[in-house]
Amino acid sequence: MTYRVCFVCTGNICRSPMAEAVFRARVAEAGLDGTVEVDSAGTGGWHEGEDADPRTVDVLEEHGYSLAHTARQFRPAWFDRLDLVIALDADHLKALRRLAPTPEDAAKVRLLRSYDPAAGHDLDVPDPYYGGRDGFEECLEMVEAASEGLLAAVRDEVEGRAA
């Protein structure tokens, strides 16, 4: 049975595609790419149909990640097929929980940085869109730091299903 994870930010061109690319690489490295499916979306449809921000693509490629991406808007009907919905900041978390059709669906929504024990109290991944390249590098660092803990949690879920 496939375990499905969807990363969600505002427009699905910066943070969530970056998280998708990094986590997909971690899943492949762990040998779970046939078991765990990874994608991303935005809370809004402003960039629907567009490629990822070129700065996102450049930073990912410079760090060894690949990304083929077209932005899309998150749909409430997707909760049925998703196991985990990862919000990139607190506003996304609130929006997604409001969209959730059931309390069980709302419980699937988590903040990415909650999987990084070193994150402290500020669990938001800042939006790099209006800033310079440094913001995209910072975003990648936060995503990478949280991806290890997220992978451990997903692996536990996957192994729990198999038991």
Automatic annotation (TrEMBL):
Residues 3-153 form the Phosphotyrosine protein phosphatase I domain. It comes from the Bacteria. It is an enzyme of class 3 (hydrolase). GO terms for molecular function: protein tyrosine phosphatase activity. InterPro entries: LMW_PTPase, Ptyr_pPase, Ptyr_pPase_sf, Tyr_phospatase_low_mol_wt. It holds the Pfam family LMWPc. The active site is at 9 (nucleophile), 15, 127 (proton donor). The keyword Hydrolase applies. It catalyses: O-phospho-L-tyrosyl-[protein] + H2O = L-tyrosyl-[protein] + phosphate. Its EC number is 3.1.3.48. Keywords: Hydrolase, Protein phosphatase. Belongs to the low molecular weight phosphotyrosine protein phosphatase family. This is protein-tyrosine-phosphatase. The lineage of its organism: Bacteria, Bacillati, Actinomycetota, Actinomycetes, Kitasatosporales.
